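Hi everyone,

Forwarding the result from last night's run.
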Amino acid sequence: MAAAVDLPTVFVVVLHWKGLDDTLACLDSLYGLDYARLQVVLVDNGSAERPAAELRRRFPALHVLEYPANLGFTEGNNVGIRYALERGADYVFLLNNDTLVATDMLSRFVAEVDADPTIGLACPAITSMNDPARRYATFIDWDRCIGGEYLLAPNDLANRDVDFAMGCALLARTAVVRDIGLLDPAYFIYYEDVDWSLRCRAAGYRVVIVPQVEVSHRGTPDQVSHPSPFLWYYYLRNQARFIRRHGPRARHWTLLRQYSRECLSRGLDAGRKGDRAQADAILDGWWAGLRGHGGPDHLIAPGWLRIGARRCAPALHWLLADAGEWRRRLSPRRLRRRIFGRPAASP
């Protein structure tokens, strides 16, 4: 291992809003790291527990930054990033509070990234806390303009460029952060890591995954089976922002129409299942996304729209079909059948 004086200084930023047991376990694992030039910053993001005193007693070296309100994932992490930048950090490592790290994780991770100055952002493989054999990486489905995760093969250990670095465990070179700016607070939560990664790539830096390094996470797809209304609202609202900012310009209308169709389908499905809270959150997120709303506030769709969408969702879904479906509907053969009916079967 390199001498401590030769190591880059890394500030790990952990955001705490709820889940104190998770936060304590995460901090325990961080203070077990073998990396010598490490500082840990915890941002208390308006949590109900307000555990600053307990945390300082248990972890004397911990930097605790307290805020009375929930700043969101973006601005909460920005608070920690600014703190690190002001103190001369070479790297900032954003880490969810529901993660655990192995002793040599950071030393191996930094060594891989620091060897290539063209790398701006990097992420490890994200493993399921329930099933460590499940290792996840990220991708962008540009046909729908959504970010997602896929399973890595067990023997997939090669460093390579990825569409975006996942925000739950994201290593950022601070020289690059000074160049491209902080996380966009308009996202509040969800899609901020996708946006940051694409801004990084647009500035000429690489965004990579280092699959030989792993971080265990409680929030992988195999562990989150029932998204909350909170998740649906911000995820769908921010998807529209992502489409407008990064989607292929020639396809903006097509993508927004397809996005609207999928939102209405999800809302209709939730309503049929009797989940009114989820149906309303989906509709609110769609409405806020189309209006370009951002930040922490939950924009509620007008009453007339909620009622109309519930009653007319099948019709709206039909009208918002893609071009291929409209061509099929308007084909001469289908139109003849609609007008004259199917020909009678031969006797």
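The chain has a mean pLDDT of 91.

Cheers,
N.
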